[in-house]
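Incident log entry.

Two folding requests arrived from the same account within the same minute. Monitoring flagged them as a possible duplicate submission, but the sequences differ. Recording both here for audit purposes.

Request one:
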Amino acid sequence: MYPATIRLLITAGIAGWLALGWVSTRADKNLTQAEAKTRLDRVKTEIGSLQRALESNRKLYAEEQDLLKTADLEIQTNALAIRKLDAARQGHEQKLAGLQQQRGDYLHSLGQRKDILASQILAAYRLGRESRLKLVLNQNSPATFSRTLAYYDYFSRAQSAQIHELKQVLKTLDRMQSRINTELSALDGVQRNQKAVLEEIRQQRQDRGIIVASLSSRINTDEARLVELQQNRKDLEALLGKLSNVLADIPTDLGKWLGPQELKGKLPVPVTGRVKYAYGQARSAGLSWQGWLISAATGSEVHNIAHGRVAFSDWLRGYGLLMIIDHGDGFMSLYGNNESLLHEVGDWVEPGAAISTVGSSVQNGAGLYFEIRKNGKALDPAVWIDR
């Protein structure tokens, strides 16, 4: 059980939330945006207080856990930077593709204009290679003479117009090439930054591996693992109890979105991969798994299973970078062992939205830890997820 200080903190915190009206009622629908933001900020503060209290009372392996938390947060910072650089690179590539398409269109236009000019020159040639002075001296009919001069004027003006348009096209092509060179230079810069950040992540992952190995070597007996796992589970349950209904402004009628209850057996798997450990399967130290550990490559995107709101998005001992989404009606989904979290507390997320990227855990390597809960009780994902 928790030390007395933790129990008092949790009890006082929940009582305080109740007194402040944190457990939403139908009147919450009338909150202004400013009031809703103020409440959300207070929720974040309360969650932070709970985390600090939990951590301050966990002395066992505290140094390694602090190092692990720091390493995870540093990797997350760089992983998010890589995503931003990826988005910037894609933006530059799209601009570059658009410019190259325009350039191709202008080159095609240039060819067409050259063909028109060539046909005009050929037509003029077919009128005869006589100079205008010779035509004046040789023409007997004023009408023929006038008509011939008119043809010359027409072709001269047409050729002049085509030559002017060709010059304008060439100037436009020069400007486009300059913009293309600018985008290519920007892409080179983004790629250099990506390479540097990826190298930093690689080094951070190596350093994290050393920390994990040190921590694993200390938790090397069944008794030590049992104590650690039991305390991790208690911390999570305390957090879930604290989160219960704090974001209960999720409407009963979700409109076009269906809740987990309506989608039972049809919910999508959050990440593609093999279920390494399933719900109820025996775990080390005599405990059983309360969710799934899904094997997946580090950095793979994790997707939300149903419409809901982010209730927790932070690091928690035993679960690493953890995201908890409240789907309403008592349902929550949990996504642990992440490398980066893509949403903050209070964010609404649609089904299928990317919410995090896969990381790794101390004992089980790369993969996502996933749970579904109803009123705080863990449910078997196999009953809810369509595989």
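Request two (distinct sequence, not a duplicate):
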Amino acid sequence: MRLLLTGVTGLLGINLAWEALQAGHEIVGVGRRPLPRAPFRVLSLDLAVQGAAEAAFRMARPDAVVHAAALADLEACERQPALAARLNAELPGEIAALAARSGVPLVHISTDAVFDGQRGDYTEDDAPRPLSMYARTKLAGERAVQRAYPAAVVLRVNFFGWSLSGRRSLAEWFFDNLREGRTMRGFTDVFFCPLLANHLASLILAVIEQRLSGLYHALSPRCLSKYAFGVALAEQFGYDPAHIQPASVADAGLIARRAHNLTLRSDKLAAALGKPLPSWEDGLAAFHRQHLEGYPHRLRAWHQPA
């Protein structure tokens, strides 16, 4: 399978590329940053520019598409609403129309943040109520995909893992601060259900292989606070969890509004795939093994000059 993967240099994109290569697939990535040593083709395109998505399809001639590119920084979305609308709301519809025209499977990556977090335990049937510019534009992107290509898959996700920069995920942030012995804060009033990016990548490949369609929550079946996640990571790596101080997100001075309870049910996807989804505990253990085995360095080698 030749997989067109947008956002290939992002946290999910780079780990999905790795997992797809291990599974024997051919990757054509789209990213704004070069990957000189990547063992796959990378198209250096700015997808915010009109016509770039069509050019990517023309050059890649894909058998399937995963659209993971987005403006995912919540604070940046508040500061640059026009760019957020372009990348998160408009572009997904364009990608979906191109995939529909080509007749190839499309998996569009959305977010758990489309909900307001007032109660949690959300299913795919619950009405979204986004709080931030990021969440509003991502919800608009979901709907654009569903209009343009009803057979596409939309996955609402939350994930962590090793990135090219080493600074893209919450897990890396906790790890870096713990390694340096710095004190940090963890939110006790923000709950989520994160998957390891590699586990999410494997689920995405299974979704494509089984030709699913529709809206699914692709998250850990077990959830926890961000503070508890940091403590669990510290214990997994053998660091002192006392370096993580309990805090409230209300005191963080953030611009974008955050939902407090983004616990989502993933039963629908587990039933469709015929197997339970990995938990955050599974992911954290694998994240630690990856560190011990040098996986972050192998990924980052793709970014080194040729």
